[in-house]
């Protein structure tokens, strides 16, 4: 009975460790995505400025405004929206990671406070 309880707690702890690892991976991925999006936004801003300088038209409502600059501006706007959305997903992922880490810490504290099954077996043999 005692061995199955210990085995169940061990499996639960391994499951939580796996879950924490998955959450850490997700957080790292979202952070990388935000960094990449931010770099693309900066690059697009430079391309838009270069195109406006090349054509000498900075007014987006001008009929001769560059189609490339308009498309790049639209792409930049979409990336800004994506960054905002990804940041909110990152906040959620960080909260979930903190929760899993807290649960894992609780499990480890419980395991540390309980005698191991070998100690129980030795005590029973005496």
Concise account of the structure shown:
The protein has 126 residues and is mostly helical. Helices cover 87% and strands 0% of the residues.
List keywords for this structure.
single chain; 126 residues; mainly alpha; 87% helix; 0% strand; rod-shaped; disordered C terminus
Explain what the structure shows:
By secondary structure, the protein is mostly helical. The chain has one domain (10-125). The chain is 87% helix and 0% strand. It contains three helices and no strands. It has helices at residues 2-55, 67-113, 117-125. Helix 1 packs antiparallel against helix 2. It is rod-shaped and about 80 Å long.
Query: Structural class of the helices, strands and pairings?
Result: mainly alpha
* Backbone shape: rod-shaped
What amount of the residues lies in strands? under 5%
Task: Outline the biggest β-sheet.
Answer: none
Distance from first to last alpha carbon: 19 Å
DSSP summary, beta strand count: 0
Mean pLDDT equals 88
**Low-confidence residue ranges:** 118-125
Whole-number count of domains: 1
How many DSSP H or I helices? 3
Helix-residue proportion: over 70%
Rg over alpha carbons: 27 Å
- Which H/E pattern describes the elements? HHH
């Amino acid at each position: 009975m005692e061995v199955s309880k210990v085995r169940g707690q061990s499996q639960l702890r391994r499951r939580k460790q796996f879950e924490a690892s998955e959450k850490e991976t997700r957080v790292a991925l979202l952070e990388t995505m935000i960094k990449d999006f931010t770099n693309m936004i900066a690059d697009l801003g430079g391309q838009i400025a270069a195109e406006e300088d090349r054509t000498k038209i900075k007014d987006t409502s001008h009929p001769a405004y560059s189609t490339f600059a308009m498309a790049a501006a639209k792409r930049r706007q979409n990336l800004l929206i994506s960054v905002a959305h990804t940041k909110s997903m990152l906040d959620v992922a960080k909260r979930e990671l903190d929760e899993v880490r807290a649960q894992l810490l609780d499990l480890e504290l419980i395991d540390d406070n309980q005698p191991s099954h070998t100690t129980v077996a030795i005590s029973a043999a005496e």
